[in-house]
């Protein structure tokens, strides 16, 4: 399972989502969209306009919702 969290340093919900994934021992890649390169990757891979975005095997959840995260992650 490929898990990616797209977020930004200025985003409080991104920090909470990052902590939640870590606390639940989920192996994930964090992509900080604060750089132009990562922002372009974020747009291309998700099509989203806001963060946080969780991508699990190319399924997308926009925003932080623990129940939706559990559903996507099958935990």
Tell me about this structure:
- This protein has 75 residues and is of the alpha+beta class.
- The chain has three helices and four strands, in the order βαβαββα.
- It has helices spanning 12-23, 36-46, 66-73, and strands at residues 3-7, 29-32, 53-56, 59-62.
- Strands 2-1-3-4 form a four-stranded mixed beta sheet, with helices on both faces.
- A hairpin with a 2-residue loop joins β3 and β4 (59-62).
- The longest helix is centred in the N-terminal third of the chain and has 12 residues, at 12-23.
- It is globular.
- The two termini are 12 Å apart.
- The model has no long low-confidence stretch (mean pLDDT 96).
